[in-house]
């Protein structure tokens, strides 16, 4: 079903949340193809289903209908533990705020992602380059509360990609940051994409932020609009 | 890595951590103190029994080592025993409960000295009048008594004529005749001690005595002292179990509450871990290790505290109570504490696993 060359292939994706008697149709027939190495910005009004799309891609919640495949794996057919495993290796998440475990240092926040994935804790050369690119090498021994929002967000990005995920899903990564910190984080994302070929999907409300991506996908009422 | 996270989490909420540890420590101390107290009391009774120096003990029909019968024996039996082969001394005493677990014992000092080698006086000496009393050093210390002090017992003032080294027969001793009279037991005894010329003959003599007086409770000193065990005190074992159960419930509740609030306040952290690919096992491992850490530290502290309670008991109630340190119970108690704590972590753990990661991460 998936087009050749697509890293992410979404067809007719639907998602219904059941809250008691109420059914919320968060996604209604989303089709999207993303090629490896792309940096895609996703825009849309509040409640249009952007985060829901990410949560499905990241295996945090199962789809209700349609098909989703990442790197050739069909998510619809996955069990709970299959999705858990997928989160360890195939996707990395960055959220709007409070991304880090507050009791651990930046270094340990990154290390725990390795530990959860069952990988050794030493960082390789590749990761040293990432830290350099993110500009947080000197901040690794600080706890989150001793870091600026921008620094925290860069640590979160480092943690999200430490296990070499196929895709990085960033849900409003700059939503909580001032312009200066936003620019730094966006430049970091672009740098990761250009220098390391990291595939990135980023949700944003900000057109300037969206301009960092190769293309922008607009969502409205649980569908993609062109 | 998990250990680091657990440690940091515990440090993050020092008051909650300390309270949980303390609750578990008190649980452990409570059990150890009760066991130590039971054992200590029984051990002390056995020690004092051995201190008498008798080879054979005789008690009235229907009595046991721990409790006295209400039907005392006749003094005439002393003569009977003293006429048996190989018997060097036979003497009787009468024990009178004086409230609580204290008793006062009436003794024929002269005969008793022949049996046991006599009391070793730390100050003062034997009775000088019929209203004199002897007390052991612990009783004297706890009640601040000296030779010449008066104590009120059995509605009468008694003068202390001597303070003797603990570990022989009783804590309070008065003249046998006087106690018999006062309690309306003239000519009656509650126990009779027999000493043989050769302790090796104890078993043979015992058999002989039992054949002649089948209704009486007759023991060798080994038999008698071995009866001082937790199993032989009616209800003690059950009492210990009840206290253990209550302790476990307290530990369980405290850990439950502590872990429950921890899970509630860490909704977001748990969500982050899940988004990083942590499965139920991983989340549970964090909580269980945190619980085990609390239980382990709490148990150690509890063991340390049990030395404190023992000191308190000996210092302030040494005359009536004795407590022992019971290292053989440390593993059991720790296990009990750990089991209670882990049970307390079960529901919070289940809640953490079931918690919706999205709710924690997407909103705000
Ligand atoms: N866990 C959930 N349970 C029930 N309804 C949900 C849940 N998550 C999202 N929804 C609903 O699904 C719809 C889409 O929500 P979603 O979070 O995907 O929107 P969004 O585009 O990310 O919005 P925003 O820009 O505000 O983040 C909304 O109507 C929302 O209320
Ligand atoms: Mg959203």
Describe the model.
- The complex is a heterodimer of chains A (226) and B (364).
- Chain A is of the alpha/beta class and 226 residues long.
- Chain A has a single domain, classed as Rossmann fold (3-Layer(aba) Sandwich), CATH 3.40.50.300.
- Chain A is built from 7 helices and 10 strands.
- Chain A has a 6-stranded mixed β-sheet with strand order 6-7-8-3-9-10, with helices on both faces. A 4-stranded antiparallel β-sheet of chain A has the order 2-1-4-5, with helices on one face.
- In chain A, β4 and β5 (73-74) form a beta hairpin.
- In chain A, α4 runs antiparallel to α5 and α5 (149-161) runs parallel beside α6 (179-196).
- The longest helix of chain A is centred in the last third of the chain and has 18 residues, at 179-196.
- Chain A starts with 5 loop residues before the first strand and ends with a strand.
- By secondary structure, chain B is an alpha+beta fold.
- Chain B folds into 2 domains: 2-43 and 235-361, no CATH class; 61-215, no CATH class.
- In chain B, 56% of the residues lie in helices and 16% in strands.
- Chain B has helices at residues 2-12, 14-51, 76-82, 109-116, 137-143, 176-182, 202-212, 221-226, 236-265, 267-275, 280-317, 330-354, 357-362, and strands spanning 56-59, 73-74, 87-97, 103-107, 121-124, 132-136, 150-153, 156-164, 172-175, 188-189, 191-196, 217-220.
- In chain B, the strands form 2 sheets. In chain B, strands 1, 3, 4, 5, 6, 7, 8, 9, 11 and 12 form a 10-stranded mixed β-sheet that branches.
- In chain B, α2 (14-51) runs antiparallel to α9 (236-265) and α2 crosses α11.
- The relative contact order of chain B is 0.19.
- The mean pLDDT of chain B is 88.
- Classes of the chains: A alpha/beta (226), B alpha+beta (364).
- Chain A binds chain B through residues 51, 55, 58, 60-61, 81, 84-89, 93, 95-104, 108, 111-113, 115-117, 121, 159, 171, and chain B through 1-2, 4-5, 8-9, 11-12, 268-269, 272-279, 282, 357-358, 361-362, 364.
- Residues 50-51, 171 of chain A line the site of magnesium ion (MG).
């Amino acid at each position: 079903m998936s087009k050749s060359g697509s890293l992410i292939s979404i067809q007719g994706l639907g998602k219904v949340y059941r809250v008691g008697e109420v059914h919320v149709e968060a996604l209604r027939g989303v089709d999207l193809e993303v090629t490896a190495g792309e940096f895609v910005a996703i825009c849309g009004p509040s409640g249009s289903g952007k985060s829901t799309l990410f949560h499905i891609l990241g295996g945090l919640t199962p789809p209700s209908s349609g098909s989703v495949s990442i790197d050739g794996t069909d998510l619809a057919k996955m069990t709970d533990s299959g999705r858990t495993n997928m989160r360890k290796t195939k996707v990395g998440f960055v959220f709007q705020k409070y991304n880090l475990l507050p009791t651990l240092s930046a270094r340990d926040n990154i290390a725990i992602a390795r530990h959860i994935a069952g990988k050794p804790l030493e960082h390789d050369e590749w990761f040293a380059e990432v830290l350099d690119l993110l500009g947080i090498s000197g901040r690794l021994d600080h706890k989150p509360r001793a870091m600026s929002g921008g620094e925290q967000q860069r640590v979160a990005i480092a943690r999200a990609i430490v296990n070499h995920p196929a895709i990085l899903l960033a849900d409003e990564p700059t939503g909580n940051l001032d312009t200066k910190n936003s620019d730094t984080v966006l430049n970091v994302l672009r740098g990761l994409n250009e220098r390391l070929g990291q595939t990135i999907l980023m949700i944003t409300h900000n057109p300037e932020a969206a301009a960092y991506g190769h293309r922008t996908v607009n969502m409205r009422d649980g569908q993609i609009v062109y | 890595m998990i250990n680091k996270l657990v440690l940091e989490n515990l440090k993050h909420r020092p008051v909650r951590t300390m309270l949980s540890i303390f609750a578990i420590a008190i649980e452990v101390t409570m059990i150890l103190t009760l066991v130590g107290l039971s054992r200590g009391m029984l051990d002390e009774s056995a020690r004092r029994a051995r201190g008498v120096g008798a080879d054979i003990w005789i008690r009235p029909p229907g009595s046991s080592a721990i409790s006295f019968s209400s039907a005392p024996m006749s003094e005439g039996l002393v003569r009977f025993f003293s006429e048996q082969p190989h018997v060097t001394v036979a003497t009787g005493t009468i024990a009178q409960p004086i409230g609580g677990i204290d008793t006062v014992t009436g003794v024929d000092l002269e005969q008793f000295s022949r049996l046991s080698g006599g009391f070793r006086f730390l100050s003062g000496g034997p009775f000088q009048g019929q209203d004199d009393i002897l007390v052991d050093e612990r009783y004297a210390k706890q009640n601040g008594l000296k030779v010449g002090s008066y104590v009120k017992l059995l509605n009468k003032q008694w003068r202390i004529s001597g303070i003797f080294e603990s570990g022989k027969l009783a804590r309070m001793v008065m003249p046998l005749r006087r106690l018999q009279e006062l309690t309306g037991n003239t000519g009656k005894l509650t126990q009779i001690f027999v000493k043989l010329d050769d302790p090796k003959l104890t078993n043979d003599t015992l058999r002989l005595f039992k054949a002649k007086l089948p209704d009486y409770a007759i023991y060798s000193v080994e038999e008698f002292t071995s009866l001082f065990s937790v199993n032989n005190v009616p209800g003690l074992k059950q009492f210990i179990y009840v206290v253990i159960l209550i302790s476990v419930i307290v530990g369980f509740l405290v850990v439950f509450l502590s872990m429950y609030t921890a899970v509630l306040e860490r909704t977001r952290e748990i969500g982050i871990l899940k988004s990083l690919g942590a499965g139920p096992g991983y989340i549970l491992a964090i909580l269980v290790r945190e619980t085990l850490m609390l239980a382990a530290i709490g148990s150690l502290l509890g063991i340390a505290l049990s030395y404190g309670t023992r000191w308190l008991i000996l210092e302030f109630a040494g005359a009536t109570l004795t407590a022992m340190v019971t290292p053989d119970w440390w593993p059991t108690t720790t296990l009990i504490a750990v089991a209670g704590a882990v049970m307390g972590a079960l529901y919070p753990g289940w809640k953490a696993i079931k918690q919706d990661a999205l709710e924690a991460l997407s909103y705000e």
